[in-house]
């Protein structure tokens, strides 16, 4: 299990001292504290032929059963297994871990979630970002029911 929060930004994230390893497949952020029904969509381009990959979509609930996310000849797939095993291909807190990132470029992540607004009403919201944006991203925030990127 991860034992430290390496976030040094002024904006808190949902990363905790005792975060399970399977969370490496879920984009991190403070939105996780006030959201449910989180779904992740990964899109990209296969580096071997420069064609778009068949995208992969999965829910946060599936993350504990992921051993790897790979690129199988242009199709992004989940290898089932023990999500509590650290994946050797770490991509930072916002891009899901997995070997797919070695042979996939132009990676774009879309997070969809049921976010609580200030009246505690659930609102479906989504936000997308690419690898370049993820490199400077500090948080994914739920602002009154709207997922927002925090730079």
* Largest sheet data: 4 strands, antiparallel
- Tell me the fraction of residues in β-strands, as a range: 35-45%
Spatial strand arrangement across the major sheet: 2-1-5-6
Contiguous low-pLDDT stretches (5 residues minimum) are: 1-16
Global mean pLDDT? 88
Report the structural category: mainly beta
C-alpha end-to-end distance: 27 Å
Shape: globular
Proportion in helices: under 10%
Tags for this model:
151 residues; mainly beta; four-stranded antiparallel sheet; two-stranded antiparallel ribbon; 1 helix; 4% helix; globular; disordered N terminus
Q: Can you describe what's shown?
A:
With 151 residues, this protein is mainly β. 4% of the residues lie in helices and 40% in strands. It has one helix at 131-136, and strands at residues 35-46, 56-59, 66-72, 75-80, 104-116, 122-130, 139-143, 146-150. The strands form 3 sheets. The chain has a 4-stranded antiparallel beta sheet with strand order 2-1-5-6. Strand 5 and strand 6 (122-130) form a beta hairpin. The longest helix is centred in the C-terminal third of the chain and has 6 residues, at 131-136. The chain is globular, with a radius of gyration of 15 Å. The relative contact order is 0.22. The model is unreliable at 1-16 (pLDDT under 50).
Helix-strand layout with pairing:
Layout lengths: L34 E12 L9 E4 L6 E7 L2 E6 L23 E13 L5 E9 H6 L2 E5 L2 E5 L1
Antiparallel strand pairs: 1-2, 1-5, 3-4, 5-6, 7-8
Quick overview of this protein structure:
This protein is mainly beta and 151 residues long. The protein contains one helix and eight strands.
């Amino acid at each position: 299990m991860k034992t430290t929060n390496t976030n040094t930004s002024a904006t808190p994230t949902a990363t905790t001292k005792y975060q399970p390893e399977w969370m490496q497949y879920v984009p991190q952020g403070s939105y996780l504290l006030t959201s449910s029904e989180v779904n992740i969509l990964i899109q990209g381009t296969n580096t071997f032929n420069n064609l778009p990959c068949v995208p992969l979509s999965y829910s946060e609930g599936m993350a504990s059963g992921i051993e790897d996310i790979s690129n199988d000849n242009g199709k992004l797939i989940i290898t089932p297994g023990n999500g509590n095993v650290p994946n050797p291909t770490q991509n930072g807190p916002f891009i899901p871990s997995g070997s797919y990132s070695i042979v996939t470029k132009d990676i774009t992540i879309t997070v969809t979630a049921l976010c609580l607004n200030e009246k505690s009403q659930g609102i479906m919201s989504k936000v997308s970002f690419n690898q370049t944006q993820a490199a400077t991203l500090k948080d994914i925030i739920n602002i009154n029911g709207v997922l927002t990127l925090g730079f």
